[in-house]
Amino acid sequence: MSHAQKVHFEQPKEFKFSAANMKKIESHVAKYPKGRQASAVMPLLDLAQNQNDGWIPEAAMEEIGRILGMPRIKVFEVATFYTMYNLQPKGKHHIQFCTTTPCWLNGSAEVVSACEKHLGIKLGETTPDGNFSLSEVECLGACVNAPVAQRNGDDFYEDLTPENAVKVLDALKAGKKPAHGSQTGRTTSMGVKGATCLHEQAEKCGVKKC
Ligand code: FES
User: Quick one: which of 38, 34, 42 has its CA closest to 67?
Assistant: First the structure.
């Protein structure tokens, strides 16, 4: 049985960008021709999320619509399309698992299942201590090192297995910073059997064992 925290949260009635963020907004808007300010919607959503503890309230989307002169629904459409935008509070470590075909073929379902079991929550839920939220996302762009998960949109953990994924969770829980990238010791995206060609080039790039 899941012991996930029921996420009760209130939508703030108002949202105003800080003075520092208003300056950043000006520079984002200035990148686009007059009348095309709506093109700046994505960086503004990102600013709102960072200003508001990692999630974007509806009032912020309204404010963005007002600033950019675009209908509120258009801001909602962008915010709800991309999984990098959180529309409700998330745990301290928001782990997003890629479950798209290459990751799935390499065992993402088993990785997700092991992490759910270890934390006692399901995808879309948050642990009662607020430490972890788990989500499922589409391709994270690191398919050659599938399966892949990212934390808080920054840190990538690759070549995951049920065992090493749980170790990553335990390290995060203990306040450590697990190494990014391959969790099996692979050098960047080198073939699992090691380099089989281009040895000289690999050595020039600092890869010692070919
Ligand atoms: S399919 Fe998982 S990173 Fe691309």
Answer: 38
Burial class (CB in 10 A: 0-12, 13-18, 19+), 64: buried
For ligand 1, is residue 149 a contact (CB within 6 Å)?
no
CB of 160 within 6 A of ligand 1: the answer is no
Question: Cα(159) to centroid of ligand 1, in Å?
Answer: 11
pLDDT at residue 21 greater than cutoff 60:
yes
* Assigned domain for 207 exists: no
Question: What is the atom index within ligand 1 of the atom nearest the CA of 140?
Answer: 3
Domain presence at residue 145: yes
pTM: 0.82
- Residue 108: domain span: 93-182
> What is the mean predicted confidence (pLDDT) over 52-69?
96
Tell whether 71 is covered by a domain: yes
